[in-house]
Structure formats: C-alpha cells, structure tokens
C-alpha cells in the first residue's frame, strides 16, 4: 500500500546479492530516465473539510456524519470511515466523544469496534467497569464539537487535535490518535504510562483548524 507521511523518514533499500549490483544499477538508471518527466505524487490535503455533514445525536451530544463516515452504526458502535485525512478527522471526533459518554449498555461494543486493541484499551475497560453512566451527558459538561486539526498523517496513522466548547464558553483540545485497523479508522488510546496531557484548555482555535461546528 502506498503511503504518504507528514513528516516521515524514508528508508533506503539495498541489493540482497552483491554480484547483482551492476544489473540493479542498470535497472535503477532506466527507471530514473523513464520517470524523469513524471510529476511527484501530491501530498494529502489535511485541510479538506468533510462533505454533506449531518448532525446525529448521541447521548445528548451532536456528532458529525458525513460522506467520509461513519457509514454504519452496529450495536451502538459507529464504523466505516474513508481512508483519507478527512475520514481520519471525522473518526477522531466521533470516537473520542462516543467513548467518553457511552452508557453502561453501549460502551463495551463501542470500545470493541472503535478502539485499537492493546494494553491501553484493556486498562480503560477495567476502569470503565467501575463507573456507571445510565443516561445522556449532563448539558453542563457535554462538549459541543468545533472542529479538528491534523498534526501528523499517513494512510495508517493520524494525530488529530479535536476542539470542543462547553456550556460556560470554555474551550479545550483533545489530543487524539487514530490508526487504520481492520480496514477502518480506530482510536488509539494513550499509553497508560504516558505523562503527556491528553486534554488542554485553549482560548482560540488555530487558523488551520478544519471547522466542523455542531449546532448550538
């Protein structure tokens, strides 16, 4: 699968048999000459907004549904996101909120289908069992989504900052990561040992934020 990464180091190849080097060099030279007039692949557009956005309520919070996903809701889990920067951005918004406010009958299906397996997922599930959420999110604490900003992207992984506003007009950014797993974007929860803050207060949105603003 071809991948474009921003930023991304490249690893060079090396011939596996020394005596094949002259032949390999000739082939590489021919390839360079033959491709000399071609255009380099354009980098992915990290600022492309989702299209045909609809706002669907979940637990008292409006979540975006668009041409880039989600395309299905099964047993409470939202799945089916386009493998593009826009699909990754929408997936980050949807997964982060759904996981945070899912009730006791929803969260196990959501974490199974919207989160990348691993120690972080397991620890989150252990902690979630000890809580109880039986109804919609309290309007005082319910987030209103404002948009997202992709800070790193490849067709396998994206770092996405998700911006929200609260009832007291305060704003916050949720630093998330989504990965392409089982042919869909899923949320990668932070390493349990990480000391990095997953959420920070903000006063203004960066100028390159892709605005996907929920209705008030």
UniProtKB/TrEMBL annotation:
Swiss-Prot/TrEMBL keywords: Signal
Pfam families hit by this protein: DUF8175
Region of interest called Disordered, as start-end residue ranges on this chain: 190-216
Organism ancestry: Bacteria, Bacillati, Actinomycetota, Actinomycetes, Mycobacteriales
InterPro entries: DUF8175
Organism of provenance: Nocardia fusca
Secretion signal span: 1-35
Occurrences of domain DUF8175 (ranges): 45-203
Protein name as annotated: DUF8175 domain-containing protein
